[in-house]
Write a structure and sequence with these properties.
Elements: E1 16-18, E2 33-42, H1 48-65, E3 70-78, E4 86-91, H2 95-108, H3 110-119, E5 120-135, E6 144-153, H4 159-176, E7 181-189, E8 197-203, H5 206-218, H6 221-229, E9 233-235, E10 239-247
Antiparallel strand pairs: 2-4, 2-5, 3-4, 3-10, 5-7, 6-8, 6-9, 7-8
Helix pairs in contact: 1-3, 4-6
Length: about 250
C-alpha cells in the first residue's frame, strides 16, 4: 500500500515545506523550514535497482552522521515535459540543521557522493525552498503521492495574501472530507524564473487522491478555490510524482 511522502502538484517542493506538524516560530506564525530538490538523470545502463542500492548506502551514512534529515525519491507520473528521470527531495527541521547537514556532507560525504555519481547525475536542477504547513501531517511522511502546483501572484497581492488564501482553502477542503496533506513552498535559492511559489499536495493512496479530485470537481471545491484564491493568485496544472521514502527524519 502506498503510504505517503507527498503529492507535488507543482514539482517537488512543498516544499511541506516542513514535512511535519505546524510548528510555530517565535513570533507565533507557522514555522518555515527548508526543502531541497534536485532533478536527476540515470547514467547509461543504470536504473532503479542501482538507485535503490546507493540510496540504501546513503541511508546508512545519514543514520550514522546526520539525524535531522529526511529524504525521498520522486518519480514522475504526470508531467508535461519529462526533464529528468527522478527527483531527490530532502527536508530539515530548520535552516540551522540544513547548514550543519550540508557542511558535514561537503566535508565527509565524498565517498558516498562518488557512489551516487556512478549511478546518476543530479547537477542540472538544484533548488531550495522554504516550506510552510497548510494541512501538514504529524511526523515525517513516508511513501505516497506528491502534486506540485507552480503559482503566480496577481497584481498587488503578496506572498502573505496567498498563504492566507491557501490556509482557508485547505480548511474548506478538509471540512469537505479531503484527506490531502499540503504545504506552501516559497523559492529561496535557485528558484525557477516566473514562479512565485509552489502549492504542494500529498496523499497516502491514489484512492484518497481520487476522492479529493471528486470533491474538488463536483463537491464544492472549485467554488472554494474561486472564493479564496480568485484575484490572489493563479496556479498551473500540477505535476504528479510517486514519492518513495529514503529516510525518515527521526530514524536512527
Amino acid at each position: 500500500m502506498i503510504r505517503l511522502v507527498a503529492v507535488l502538484l507543482t514539482t517537488v517542493f512543498s516544499l511541506a515545506f516542513g514535512w511535519g506538524s505546524a510548528a510555530q516560530a517565535a513570533d507565533g506564525r507557522a514555522k518555515a523550514t527548508p526543502v531541497d530538490f534536485r532533478g536527476c538523470n540515470f547514467h547509461e545502463g543504470m536504473g532503479m535497482e542501482d538507485l535503490q542500492k546507493v540510496a540504501t548506502k546513503f541511508r546508512e551514512y545519514t543514520n550514522k552522521n546526520d539525524f535531522d534529515y529526511a529524504a525521498w525519491t520522486l518519480h514522475p507520473e504526470f508531467q508535461a515535459k519529462f526533464e529528468f528521470d527522478f527527483g531527490w527531495l530532502g527536508s530539515w527541521s530548520d535552516s540551522e540543521a540544513y547548514g550543519v547537514s550540508t557542511e558535514h556532507w561537503k566535508l565527509n560525504g565524498r565517498a558516498i557522493y562518488a557512489e551516487f555519481a556512478k549511478v546518476m547525475d543530479c547537477t542540472s536542477t538544484h533548488q531550495l525552498a522554504m516550506s510552510l504547513p497548510i494541512n501538514a501531517p504529524k511526523g515525517t511522511p513516508e511513501d505516497g503521492i506528491l502534486m506540485f502546483y507552480a503559482c503566480n501572484l496577481e497584481d498587488g497581492k503578496s506572498i502573505d495574501d496567498a498563504y492566507a488564501a491557501h490556509l482557508n482553502l485547505g480548511s474548506d477542503m478538509k471540512a469537505m472530507g479531503s484527506l490531502a496533506v499540503s504545504w506552501f513552498f516559497q523559492p529561496a535559492l535557485g528558484g525557477v524564473a516566473g514562479v512565485d511559489y509552489y502549492h504542494v499536495v500529498g496523499f497516502y493512496r491514489y484512492a484518497d487522491m481520487g476522492a479529493t479530485m471528486e470533491l474538488y470537481a463536483n463537491g464544492g471545491g472549485i467554488a472554494s478555490f474561486r472564493k479564496n484564491l480568485g484575484g490572489v493568485s493563479s496556479c498551473n496544472t500540477p505535476t504528479v510524482y510517486d514519492a518513495v521514502s529514503v529516510r525518515a527524519r527521526d530514524e536512527r
